[in-house]
Amino acid sequence: MARERPIKALSDLMDGSVEERFNAELDKVWQNVYDPNTDPKKARTLTIKVKIVPNERRDSCDFRVNVTSSLAPYADLTQTVMLAVGADGTIRATERTDQVPGQIDMEGGETPMPQTIEFGKLREVK
Question: pLDDT per residue over 41-98, tens digit each?
Fold first, then answer.
């Protein structure tokens, strides 16, 4: 005969497995809260869903527990790109930065030139 254990707390359920899953999802929430790539003001949600399914005789039931979290998505990244057309018709896109290329920082490092990507030649629009 199976040993009976009264369920008095969530930590009693399934030998502590529910609490373990809750803690694992809560850790994901904390990591997401401190991620600088997410919106700090977006709500995060932690859900414990308990389904209780009795048998035909109603003398026992299955507990089905699902623990999930809903995290804040990554914030959009925005960058201004300067566009230019060279004398040969080549389109160039250069990322705009707040730093002046060639400027020396406090550690003695030099600010690099911004990256420029060259595309195909500009086609004539008819």
Answer: 999 999 999 999 999 999 999 989 999 999 999 988 888 888 888 888 888 888 887 7
Q: Which string of DSSP letters, residue by residue, matches the chain?
A: -PPP----SGGGGGGGHHHHHHHHHHHHHHHHHT-TTB-TTS--EEEEEEEEEE-TTSS-EEEEEEEEEEPPPBPPP---EEEEE-TTSEEEEEE--SSPTT-B-TTSPBPPPPPEEEEEEPPPP-
Task: Name the pTM for this structure.
Answer: 0.61
End-to-end CA distance of the chain: 87
Neighbouring CB atoms inside 10 A of 59's CB total 7
